[in-house]
Predict the structure.
Amino acid sequence: MKKIQISPSILAGDFSNLGAEIKRLERGGADMIHVDVMDGHFVPNLTIGPPVIKSLRKYTKLPFDVHLMISPVHKYIKKFSEAGSDIITIHPEATENIKESIDLIKSLDKKVGLSLNPDTPINAIKKYLIEINLVLVMTVYPGFGGQKFISKILDKIKNLKKIKDETNLNFDIEVDGGINFENNNLVIDAGANILVSGTTIFKDNNGDIKKNIELLRS
């Protein structure tokens, strides 16, 4: 089994000092930095764009795990690549041609992720699994941090892991949404190997990031 990796979401950090927050995450043992990009259109919230990612790139060599919740997404992929993204994850509903968007991300020498909202079936991306590096399974409806974990999505994670094993593919299964110390082992047991967490990492145990990352991984 792949090592469990932790991708802390900077959406839960102190936005007035994100560079320092990223340094804290690096010292705390984070495997990558999860960056939630929202446009106020595809999801009901606004966050950050390429200039902010570019300004943060100098603070760490950890991979930037960039989740694009924007539509139409295709025309912005190159800008996020140039800003310093290492993994670019898009939603199938946000592009007119999934294959073209996958090919564009790959042509920019970035890892490709496809994300499944709670109501999006695996079949929406199944034929692309051979071409991508990561599937991001949302266990909340995207748009806001701090939402409650939707437990019925565990079956989707299990089914995705089953497909992965049966086809002998090597994509990562990442899970994002309400991940905490009560459900981390549930998603790991279901087949996830990358956990995204924001509030739990930054706030629990009096903000002890290293301890919180270790607890989520165990």
Remarks:
- The first helix runs from residue 18 to 27.
- Residues 5-217 form a domain with the TIM Barrel fold (CATH 3.20.20.70).
